[in-house]
Structure formats: C-alpha cells, structure tokens
Amino acid sequence: MTPDDPVERPGIVDAHHHLWVRARHPQPWIDPRTMAAIDADFTPVDLAPVARAAGVTQTVVVQSVAARTETPELLGIAADDPLIAGVVGWVDLTADDVADRLDRLRAGRGGQRLVGIRHLVQSEPDPTYLDRPDVRRGIAAVGAADLAFDLLVRAHQLPAATRLVRDLPQTRFVLDHLGKPALGHADLGAWSRDLRALAAEPNTVAKLSGLVTEVDATSWTTADLRPAVEHALDVFGPDRLMFGSDWPVCLLASSYLRWVEALADLLGPLRDDERAAIWRQTARRAYRLPAS
What we know:
Layout: E1 12-17, H1 44-53, E2 56-62, H2 70-80, E3 84-89, H3 98-107, E4 114-119, H4 133-144, E5 148-151, H5 158-167, E6 173-175, H6 189-199, E7 204-208, H7 222-236, E8 241-243, H8 256-266, H9 272-287
Helix pairs in contact: 5-6, 6-7, 7-8
C-alpha cells in the first residue's frame, strides 16, 4: 500500500451512490441481459463493507427513479445509518408546490439529511427541458431551500445546463459524471468545450464519478479515464471536484475499490490539500455535510 492510497487517508466522502430494493422501487432501466451485474437489490448492508474497505466514512445516496415514495424511504434509511450523511432526492420540478414538498420531506423522518434534489434529465426527450419556465421555477425553489441541484445530463445537454446555471446564479449545481463524456472515442472536442463553458459559472461543482461505465467495461485502464479527469481538473480545479463511486452502477465495469484506486492514481500528481478537496472537502461544502 502506497502513501497515496486513499485507504490510508481518513474521511473519504463518497458523494454519489445508489440503493434500491426492486420490490419497492422497480428499476426499469436495468436490462437483465446486459446489466446482470446490477440486476439485484442493493442495501446499506451491501454498501458498508465495500465503502469502508476503500476508506469511506461518509456517503451521499442519490435517487434513482422518479417516484415520490423513494426519497422518504432513503431519508429514513439515512436516519438509521451513520455512514449515510446526505440524500439527494427527487421531487416533481413542474409541480406548483415544490417548496411545500421540500418542507414536507424535511419535516419527515431523516429530513435533516436531505441535501439536494435530482431529476433524470438525461432521459427527457424534450431538448428544451431545462429551458422550460415550469422546470426552472422548480429548480429555483430547490435553490431557495438551500439545497443543491444535481445535473444528470448527457454531453449534448451541457449547453442547456450552462444556460440554466447562468440564469440561476443563487442555486448551487452539482454536475454528475462530468456530463458523461464518450470516453474511448477519438473526438472529445465538443464535450471539452461545453464542460469548460459550464465550469466558467462559479455556482457549479462536478463529480468525478460514472466514468468507468463510459469506457469498454471489459478492457478499460486508468489511461482511458485520464483525458476526462485531467480536463475536469483544468476547468474546475480540485476545489470544485468531488469523488463519487456511482455504486452499484459502477459494478458493470469495476469493483468499488478498483475505481477508487484508479482515481487515486490519476490524482497522484496533485498536492495533499488538492487531493483532500476531491476526496472529501468539496462534497462537504457543496452538500453542507457535517464533518465525520
């Protein structure tokens, strides 16, 4: 074990993972033929050993389906689990009473663990979804409640995300998975340009997460991930980046620990304080997490 191995560093925050029991919250996006590795239930009992083996002492669990019942359940799980410090939940952004819905979530069991809201924008067929007044009204209500809004977008949606972020400067935005660059393809020019434009907005941070599922699942190496990580470091800087495992989705291409070790290798040239920002400090600041 090397001095730079993250297992040796205390207090890693995993800012992005999921939990689901399909009998309660079906995951229709999981193809049992091509996604057999995650065609199962994943609970805190499954998470704890792999997270702690990687040096993780706090996590943020993120919604996975657009269902009103999932977020209260995740908050209740977080209330009982000291490992889970925060929940990024879901509300219908187009509802007239978004602020009231957030208040009800916070008033419920585990409500103090609500740190953000996410919508599955990547699955929206409407290319103008993030420009719609009703959607923006809902996201503004999230910001007014002092919650972060997680941006789950694909690379071609980054310009729309940038317009949104620019027009709502009082809202904190967290970009998931670096906007899903098509790693392994020769031309990352459009993604690189659009990520730089988003990063120019000071109310954004981004997650180093979800990258191993954007490369060849059977043959990827750390070198395949380097272009995305290095570009993110260039445009956001370490103080605006955070680590996320994307477990259990990462299991399609990598174990939890392998992804942590790959990222540790990619961050090796950074200073200790820069690595500390990515492993824990940015997530605690963006999501208002307590120190572990």
